[in-house]
Amino acid sequence: MAVAGLQAGRLAQRHCGFLLKAAEQFVRTRAFGWTPAVRRKAAEASTGEPESADAVVIPSRKTWSREAVLKALASTVSRDPTAYPYELQDDSYLSPRNSAEFKLYTLSQESGRSAAKYFVNTNPKFFTKDFAEPHIPCLMPETVSLRLEEVSEEALKERISLSKVTAAVDMYDQLLQAGTAVSMETTHDLLDLICLHCDRDPVQEEVPQTEDMEQPGEEAKRRKGRFRHASDFMKTMWRENNNAERIFNLLPERDTRCYSALIRGMVKHGAYAKAFSMYTDLLNNRLTADVHIFNVLISAAPDVREKYNERWDLIADLLNQMSQQKVWPNLLTFNSVLKALRRCGPLARTQALLTLNEMKAVGIAPSLASFDHVIAVFYKSASNGQGKTNILQEVMSELVGSSFTCQDPYDVHFFCNAMRICLESKDLELGYKVQNLVEVGENWRMLGDSYQQSIYYGRFFKLLCIMEHIDEVLKWYRLLIPSLYYPNPQSLRDLFQALDTDSRLDLLPAIWKDIRSLGHDNKLALVEEVLSLMARDEHSPEVQESLAVCALDVKSVFDGDKGRPGLEWSTSSLTHITSLLLKANKTQQAWEMLQIFKAKNRVPSERLLNNFLSVCRSDGSCQRAVDLVQLSAAFCLPATSVLAKQVLAEFDLTEEQRAIVSELESAGEPSD
Asked: For the whole model, what pTM was predicted?
């Protein structure tokens, strides 16, 4: 047995050696799997001379990030168009069905996060355990309370880092009164903080602020309950001689960074003329501005000049001063120029193209915001639809296949505005180009927040409904809804129009199911439009059967189901549902609808009664025909006598039935 094992081991060794020789021969012949570094070493070993210096040397070892495996796995799967977004999958029952529920859902999530963050930060002693691996700092308690009470520069830095504007200003004043010098770096940070928040404490999302919270002492504990909203702070304007200006004037030496903080704060909070005056003071002190100063001054140029040519002259003068001061522009500089050109009238077209050429000359690639500003400039001055899309065609030809990252806050407006132009110009091909660019890489992130995404996909879907074949419309309908887009009633009406145009009203029952799942079955106008389209034409028996089943489901919405109140019955809705039931030979359900007419005091049309009479004639139902005449008489319809004559002539009535119908006939005849 040992001999057999020894022979098996030698055989395996011989077999492995054969495989190694074969693999080595394959590598030598095919050079498969050899990196340039390996080939270089092999060449040096064989010739004794190193390769040329132009050869590319790739290191033999690569360091992978912790998410590399997850990214590789994620690249193997595609998006499921029928699934909700990942952030909405915590509770399938609470998953939103329309835009209103989505807004409520996301606000609730954010409110829950804010509440959790508030409890974690106010009670950090209960959250000392850190089980996360790797460590996630944002999930740990933050330091939101002041720990340093003594008067020192470290205490000032702490207040600046916590964005406590009032406390930081008070600490700075105490340091000056104590004769303690504050470093220029800390002074810069303090000015930046004051100018950013316009000399006010920022809104704390976790805690509702009241008036008494601003008062020190024991009275701050009283809650008088008047909340201060974020919108109140957004409307704040730059106050004259505020703490930023006061601290700036107290500085023995002022550098460019100090001027930059004040100028940017003045522009941010609407003090445009004062910002230019501060810039003039900077030049008078023989200082050189930085690129941030020029960026905000260029963006504010249209607000300090009235005429278009004066605005451009000021922008050009600022650009020339940048060149003279040897300040190198960045992307935001050119985007500020293009944004300002949108308010410079007819001369903006020529200057916008020159600005793009200048960007290319200095080696700065335009961002999506750059193209959005250029498109807006040409779109405003174009007089026809073709002229409006020409510039967008050129932009899309240049951007095809490109992947973008956000470099400017206005980057997120490009796709939405581009799709608006495609919709207004009815250019389906251009719309597809825009959508294809969205699907490249992670460009979908450039659509903006959920509100902007809804606008973009709503415009794209409307363009499809107007211009595309119904099969393609339905394909995109399944791809977009509800994973990417919650359609509003107007979008569904556009879909109805597309179905009607291509004579595919047989698909309305399937669309109705989606309407119910999306929560739009409480929109009376939308429901009545569905009924009107289903009842308008004649279809095959199979289609009529599916439409009748759908009509009964619509009836349950009017009656009220799932604990919700029903819709208000109208004559048209009753008529449409009854007609659909009659066409599908559902006589009993149709007759029940006539009873609803009577109960809701709605008057049926003569055409509907004639349809009922035809059904009674084909079924040979004499009693139903008599009941129909009685119902017509109850509504005092002018056609009662004509209907009674038809029943008397065409039905084999009993003596009692004939007497009833004859009496109704005489009562329904007009008097002389």
From this structure: 0.79
